[in-house]
Every structure is written in C-alpha cells, then in structure tokens.
C-alpha cells in the first residue's frame, strides 16, 4: 500500500494527531499518579466526561446481590395479593441495594449511578442483582447517606443541573391470583365476546398495588417524586394463574432552592430522517 | 494468572497466562502470507476508520489470536465430584483464596445421612487460571500478529468464547485492527498497546487525557456447596425435617454472599492487572449454573480497557442542552 495514501494532511485533525502521538509516547513513563487507587467503572467515555463537567468522578464498579426465599405453597390457588411473594421481592431489592450502598461507602462514594437491575422470580426464590458505578464529587465531604440510582450518568448530570438529586431506588412489586371462573360462567361465556373480569381485576389490582408499594418506598426515603419509572409484568412460567407486576425508578428530591430551568437551545438537524432512495431498490 | 504479579509500569499486557503455539513466534504460515499480502485489512466500521485516520492512526492489518481449551478436569466440587471439597471441612482455604463454611443450626437433632450438616462457598482458582490461560494465549497470539506487521497498537478489539465440537471444549477468539501512530515511535518494549475502543470513542478518550494500555479481562469462579438451611430455602421444603410448618420469607445468606463474592473477585482479579492505571468501559457478565438442592457454580467475567492518564483533565465547558426541532 502506497504511503502517499495516508500522507495527506488532515485539515482539522492536526491537534488530535499531536495529542495521539503524545499519548502513545507517555506509555514509556510510569502511571501519572503512583499513589492513586485505580478507578474501575462501566461508564462510557461520554458519561465520564459529562460527570466531570459537573465536578463529579467515578470511583469504583460496585455490586449488590440478594436471594430471598419464597415459602412453599404460596402459588397455589387463592384470591387477592400473594403477600409472601411481594414481600420476598421487596426484601430482595432492599437487601441488594443495601449491599450496593455498603460497597459505595467503603470507597468513599456519594452514590451509585447507572445501576443495572436484574430480577429473576422463581417458584421458591427471588434473585436480584444490581451493578453500577460509585461516583463522588471531586471536592466533596463524606455524605450522610449514599444514593442508589438506575439513571445513566447523562440523566444524573441533567437532573443535577436542574437542581434535583437522586435519593435511592424506589421499588414495588405485587403478585396476585387471577381467580378461576365458575363452571357455569365458563360454559356461558364460551361462545361470547366478553370481558374476562377475573383477569381484568387481577391485572388492575397488581398494577395498583405494585405502584403503591413503589411510591411508599420513595416516601419512606424522604423523596418528593420518582423519575424514569419502568414496569415489568406478566404471568410467571411456573404459575400461569398468578400475575406479577414490578415497577421501579429513581426517587428524587429537590436539592436547590427551586427548580433550575435549563433553557435548551432548539436545533434543526439537516440530515435526512428518511432515506428516499436505495440502490438495492433497483434489484 | 500472570497479570496479578506484573510491575505497575509495565506496558506489556498479557491479561492471562501466555504459552503454547504462537507465543514463541510460530505463527501459522497462512497468517504470515495474509499479513504480508500488500493491502491492509481492518475490522473497523467506515465511521471508525475515518475517525482513526483523523487521529493519525493508520490501519495495517486485521490481527487475531485463537486458543482452544479442553476442560478435562473441572476440579473438586464439580457436579461429578459432589461432596468433595478442595479445602478442609470446617477449615479455611489457602491465603488469598475465598472460602466460607456454614454449619447446620439444628443442633444434631433429627439428622439423617441426607441432612447436610455442613456447606461451603469456595473460589475455584484452577478454573480461573485455566480460563486465564485460554484468554491469555489467544491474546498473546493477537499481539504477536500485530508485532509481525510492525503495529504500534491494536484498536477495536473484540473477544468471544464459544463451545466447540464437544461440550468440554471452548474456543477463545480475539481480533482487532493493528494500527501505526503516524509520526510516532515504536511502543515501549516493542509490545503494542490494545483497546476495546475505536473511532470517536477512542478519540474522546485521548482528548480526555487517557491513553489505552491494554485490554484486561478475568474470570472468577465460585462453587456453592449448600448446607441444610440453604437447601431448605431454595428447594421450598416445608421445614428442616420435612414436616409441615410455616417458613418465613428469608434471605438465603449463603447464596447472596457467593454471588457478591464472585463479582468482587472478578473485580479484584482485574484490579490486579491495572497497577495504578484505571479501568474504562467495564463489562461484567455473570452466569449461574444451578445444580440441585441449592448447589451452584457462579462464573463472572469482567473485561475492559486499562487506561493511563497522560495529562491533567482540562476544565470542560458545561454541556449545552438542546432540543431537536425535527
């Protein structure tokens, strides 16, 4: 390959090229700060830069795991909420979040951002795995309490600039029975287009109770609201007559005196939103 | 794993044990023919390719390394050797190896041969070192190919493992694009630097004041040999003795601690490869193999790019929020 192919100067990239050469040469020297503790993080470069723009930095990759047992027999037929399953779920989340917070405190972090939430509900146990990056202000004192948030570092930065702060992970779960129809009702409805009120009521009940649990956990933390709520729902593979509903989000509180308006600039991208013509269409 | 004992300022990466074919300069003949073929090859996307040219990185070849490992002996505590612990019953593991023991709280009451009066969580260093050998050998071969084409670094590294031919055979595969820094000298020690990043993400990393040193990866393996309480809670047995009774919602402490330990061990293994440098873009993957009666094998893989700060952070302007009109 001709060297001339690569020799053309890059009009705007000269500084970056010099920086790259400087960076590569720096590998001959030992680490910048020999006394510093290595930082581990699952943040992207963009997220690290955004955190730095508000005076925060990543500290450590942290984990929280909890497995909680569900007593036998709770999935058998009944009516109303399956209290033991909901309780097990909420205990597993609380315990995993506490483990995550402990790891964060151990490295002098102020909170954990970008928490990845993995929940698995089985017949006899609930497994919760939380993974995130502990962060702290570059110049900050030890916090009274660390926060756990599933917001990305980008959303955390936006929230921070708006004067709000995360308090913790608000979680709520509810499992309810979808009661059987009577034989007579089943027979009568077999050739009708009708609402299955037993399922409607079960779904309604599970959703409302799950969200109520979530709001209760946020209030218990002293939060004013919850942002970025996500939900997961559906029957469990091992108990088709039971409906599970899970809701979670980041509990937030106003930390500035009032909400800070960001006054975003309006931009009009000039790139085509849709491609009108593709060469493959000629085939 | 060799990475744990390396000096902090050593640039040579090798995130695992090196050895076997390729480590001694015996690349396959086809690799030599391909790399000397006269044209460059690259695994970069077109945007990443353009961004690298902008940074003064010239692609010189797609480089790769492989290693096929057989898992002939999974060690004491495998499903085939249930009931055997590598560490003494009730005793502790060697220094630096994670191990916790659990004893039956039922006070010797109603024991049977099947009642598990003792359990243990323990790290499996023989599994971890075998994984490190597979990954490290593949990585060393990738670096060797990069040296063959005179590269200064390898960008856009991708690694994968897959079962091959038989359930006990695993292939480690690592590939990336070898590059030369235009106007730059050879890397210290002649060993190219490596990174999972490429394109604009790599450019932003350098502009932020970090230089990639090497990819780092480690596996942690923890075996759970459940004791009676864990077995009861995980299997849904009504009571400790099989009768009826109320069992409350309770945390399965042995398993919670094992899952935490596997992840923490993976982090510490990687930390051992970092020296005073940082880990950027960590990716953690945990797999749990549930055996029976509460027994588990938890394997956790952590990978990322070891980066070194070469200049102080420049103060960044506050990002300007925008709203798209379209």
Can you summarize the main beta sheet of chain B? 5 strands, antiparallel
The outline of chain A comes out as globular
Q: Supply the CATH class of the largest domain in chain B.
A: Alpha Beta
Assigned CATH architecture of the largest domain in chain B: 2-Layer Sandwich
Class from secondary-structure proportions of chain B: alpha+beta
| Number of DSSP strand runs of chain B | 11
Sequence of secondary-structure elements of chain A: HHHEHEEEHEHHEEE
Please compute the radius of gyration of chain B using only Cα atoms: 24 Å
Strand content of chain A: 25-35%
Output the helix-strand order of chain B: HHEEEHEEEHEHEHEEE
- Which CATH C-level class of chain A is it? Alpha Beta
In the CATH hierarchy, the third-tier topology of chain A is known as Translation Initiation Factor IF3
Mean residue pLDDT of chain B: 80
Structural class label of chain A: alpha+beta
Largest interface summary: A-B, 76 and 85 residues
Whole-Å distance between the termini of chain B?
Answer: 53 Å
Q: Tell me roughly what share of residues is in helical segments of chain B.
A: 10-25%
Biggest sheet strand line-up of chain B:
2-3-7-10-9
| Total beta strand runs of chain A | 8
Fold topology:
The complex is a heterodimer of chains A (283) and B (326).
Chain A: H1 4-7, H2 14-25, H3 45-53, E1 56-69, H4 83-106, E2 111-121, E3 125-137, E4 147-148, H5 153-161, E5 164-177, H6 183-189, H7 197-220, E6 225-236, E7 239-254, E8 265-267
Parallel strand pairs in A: 2-4
Antiparallel strand pairs in A: 1-3, 2-3, 5-7, 6-7
Helix pairs in contact in A: 3-5
Chain B: H1 29-35, H2 46-55, E1 57-70, E2 99-103, E3 118-123, H3 125-148, E4 153-164, E5 166-181, E6 193-194, H4 199-207, E7 210-225, H5 228-235, E8 250-251, H6 253-274, E9 278-290, E10 296-309, E11 322-324
Parallel strand pairs in B: 4-6
Antiparallel strand pairs in B: 1-5, 2-3, 3-7, 4-5, 7-10, 9-10
């Amino acid at each position: 390959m001709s060297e001339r192919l690569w020799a053309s100067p890059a009009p705007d990239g000269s500084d970056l090229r010099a920086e790259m050469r400087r960076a590569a040469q720096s590998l001959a020297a030992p680490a910048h700060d020999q006394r510093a503790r290595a930082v581990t993080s699952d943040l992207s470069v963009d997220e690290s830069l955004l955190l730095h723009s508000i005076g925060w930095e990543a500290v450590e990759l942290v984990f929280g795991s909890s497995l909680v047992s569900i007593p036998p027999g709770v999935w058998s037929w009944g009516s109303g909420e399956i209290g033991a399953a909901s309780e097990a779920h909420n205990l597993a989340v609380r315990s995993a979040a506490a483990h995550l917070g402990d790891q964060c405190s151990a490295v002098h972090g102020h909170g954990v951002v970008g928490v990845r939430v993995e929940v698995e509900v089985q017949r006899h146990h609930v497994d919760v795995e939380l993974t995130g990056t502990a962060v702290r202000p570059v110049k900050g004192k030890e916090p009274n309490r660390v926060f756990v948030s599933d917001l990305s570092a980008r959303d955390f930065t936006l929230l921070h600039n708006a004067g709000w702060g995360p308090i913790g992970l608000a979680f709520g779960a509810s499992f309810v029975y979808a009661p059987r129809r009577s034989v007579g009702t089943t027979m009568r409805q077999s050739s009708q287009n009708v609402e299955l009120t037993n399922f409607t009521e079960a779904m309604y009940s599970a959703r409302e109770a799950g969200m109520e649990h979530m709001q209760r956990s946020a209030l218990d933390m002293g939060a004013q609201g919850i942002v970025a709520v996500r939900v997961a729902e559906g029957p469990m593979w091992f108990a088709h007559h039971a409906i599970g509903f899970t809701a979670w989000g980041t509990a937030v509180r106003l930390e500035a005196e009032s909400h800070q308006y960001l006054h975003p600039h309006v931009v009009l991208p000039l790139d085509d939103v849709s491609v009108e013509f593709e060469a493959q269409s000629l085939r | 794993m060799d990475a744990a004992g390396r000096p902090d300022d050593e640039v040579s990466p090798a995130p695992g044990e090196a050895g076997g074919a390729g480590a001694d300069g015996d690349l396959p003949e086809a690799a030599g023919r391909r790399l000397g073929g006269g044209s460059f090859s690259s695994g970069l996307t077109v945007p990443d390719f353009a961004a690298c040219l902008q940074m003064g990185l010239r692609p010189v070849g797609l480089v790769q390394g492989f290693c096929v490992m057989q898992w002939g002996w999974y060690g004491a505590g495998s499903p085939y050797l249930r009931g055997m612990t590598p560490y003494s019953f009730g005793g502790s593991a060697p220094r630096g190896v994670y191990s916790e023991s659990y004893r039956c709280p039922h006070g010797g009451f109603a024991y049977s041969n099947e009642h598990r009066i003792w359990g243990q969580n323990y790290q499996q260093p023989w599994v971890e070192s075998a994984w490190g050998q597979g990954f490290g050998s593949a990585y060393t071969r990738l670096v060797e190919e990069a040296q063959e084409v005179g590269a200064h670094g390898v960008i856009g590294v991708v690694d994968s493992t897959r079962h091959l031919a038989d359930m006990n055979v695993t292939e480690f595969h690592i590939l990336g694009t070898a590059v030369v820094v235009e106007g730059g000298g050879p890397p210290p020690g002649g060993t190219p630097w490596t990174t999972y990043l490429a394109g604009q993400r790599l450019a932003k990393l350098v502009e932020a004041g970090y230089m990639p040193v090497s990819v780092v990866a480690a596996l942690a393996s923890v075996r759970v040999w459940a004791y009676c309480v864990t077995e009861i809670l995980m299997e849904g047995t009504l009571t400790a003795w099989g009768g009826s009774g109320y069992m409350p919602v309770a945390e399965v402490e042995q398993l919670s601690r094992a899952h935490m330990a596997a992840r923490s061990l993976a982090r510490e293994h990687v930390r051992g490869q970092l020296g005073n440098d940082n880990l950027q873009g960590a990716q953690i993957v945990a797999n749990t193999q549930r055996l029976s009666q509460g027994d588990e094998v938890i394997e956790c893989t952590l990978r990322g790019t070891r980066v070194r700060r070469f200049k102080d952070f420049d103060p960044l302007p506050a990002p300007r929020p925008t709203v798209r009109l379209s």
